[in-house]
């Protein structure tokens, strides 16, 4: 049997290689370290964790990443079994001894009889006779391969600043203050005239907000980020605020063409706009609010915005170098490059974010490639599961727009906003009505219950069993 080639032995590539080999299919895993390093990796271990040692919450009942842990464990994941074996105390989170963890992943892959590890940088697109390839080279993909992928995809950007604006859960916005309206009520192609959520500010609120932005603590640029070009359309809001107190009011916070639906006679001094971020309509992003403010400061400052006092953030803003594809446009539902289906992509390069998310997309890509080699068709996991919801974000759930800079698709951690909505249970099994925070806990429990059941059905019905461990 011809091998599947996996390029990049990080979180995604290691998991993909494992899932393929345990189904009796040979794998060649190409990892460039230590021949060539990256700006963040320090060792030659496979699945090295470049920063924090946390896999985040391990609560599979109330947390979306906890549900991913559960689905990975059910899939026989190498990343999760090594994480479990090298766990360190971290409250409700799953944190690991990073050296023990990466050494265990490296040893398991090296010991598998069907896996060959080649230490080499792949600098060009793979030759045509590699008929099944997974590219899992991560956010720090080497420049030569980035260039080759750019040429294959025909896109004009692949490696750039990942300028991200915060994303907010729709149901945490206060509509006694905010209202729906497009600027000048423009319907546009495909709009309704009420496509944006607007949050008004008077002069005193605007002044206090600008002061907070200018004074707020900012994250420093890492040294490897300094050579990456800025997109002018993606300047951080605090940089704009520093350029002049009125800059934001004439930029992303301009009040023109908007009438406060609650106080039609009061002209807002400035307006913050939010735009639908996913097809489900459960998430909204803050338009033009990319920022390098520290996360704690973002929570404090953005909750000063009228209507967002209780906002729950699905993702906070940030700027760092990242390499990722415009996946909703370029990849099909099983992560194949539409223009060259022998190539699949996995991990952060597909537009997910985080260790666990990258391992999960690695797991899925491995399962898709293995099924194909075995002559089977594996449908994507159900959108109600955590892996299905994440895959949906990457390959279809996001609304694509033509905008300056890298485009509107941005990497994301898994979160409940990516899941199809569910009716919130009103009372517990004894008929006692949920109050306050109990309601949101009950909703999360209902989402994870549904996801677990659907994922288990999908595994049983479609995923080829492991035969070679
Ligand atoms: C500086 C930084 C800090 C981060 N901190 C966190 C954090 O704290 N928590 C978190 O959850 N996520 C964090 N992330 C995101 C994290 O990188 C990803 O979540 C995860 O490591 C991505 O997994 P991956 O498998 O896609 O890529 P990686 O784990 O980066 O693996 C990619 C592998 O491909 C190899 N490679 C690259 N190019 C080539 C080539 N041409 N040929 C052969 N091999 C190649 C690399 O050496 C690497 O081993 C951080 C990312 C960066 C850049």
From TrEMBL:
* GO biological-process terms attached to the record: tRNA methylation; tRNA wobble uridine modification
The EC number(s) this enzyme carries: 2.1.1.74
Extract the Gene3D superfamilies matched here.
FAD/NAD(P)-binding domain (3.50.50.60)
UniProt keywords (A-Z) are: Cytoplasm, FAD, Flavoprotein, Methyltransferase, NAD, NADP, Transferase, tRNA processing
Quickly give the catalysed reaction.
Answer: uridine(54) in tRNA + (6R)-5,10-methylene-5,6,7,8-tetrahydrofolate + NADH + H(+) = 5-methyluridine(54) in tRNA + (6S)-5,6,7,8-tetrahydrofolate + NAD(+); uridine(54) in tRNA + (6R)-5,10-methylene-5,6,7,8-tetrahydrofolate + NADPH + H(+) = 5-methyluridine(54) in tRNA + (6S)-5,6,7,8-tetrahydrofolate + NADP(+)
User: Could you tell me which SUPFAM superfamilies the record lists for this protein?
Assistant: FAD/NAD(P)-binding domain
Main location (coarse class)? cytoplasm
* Residues that bind FAD: 8-13
Q: Which residues form the signal peptide?
A: none
Cofactor needs? FAD
Domain MnmG N-terminal, by residue range, is 4-375
Question: Where does this protein reside within or beyond the cell?
Answer: Cytoplasm
Amino acid composition bias (Basic and acidic residues), ranges on this chain: 427-439
Q: Which Pfam families match?
A: GIDA
Give the CC-aspect GO terms: cytosol
**Where are the residues of the annotated region Disordered?**
427-448
One GO MF term on file is:
flavin adenine dinucleotide binding
Q: Which domain of life is it from?
A: Bacteria
The family assignment reads:
Belongs to the MnmG family. TrmFO subfamily.
Q: Which HAMAP family match?
A: TrmFO (MF_01037)
- Relate the protein's function as given in its record: Catalyzes the folate-dependent formation of 5-methyl-uridine at position 54 (M-5-U54) in all tRNAs.
Protein name (database record) = Methylenetetrahydrofolate--tRNA-(uracil-5-)-methyltransferase TrmFO
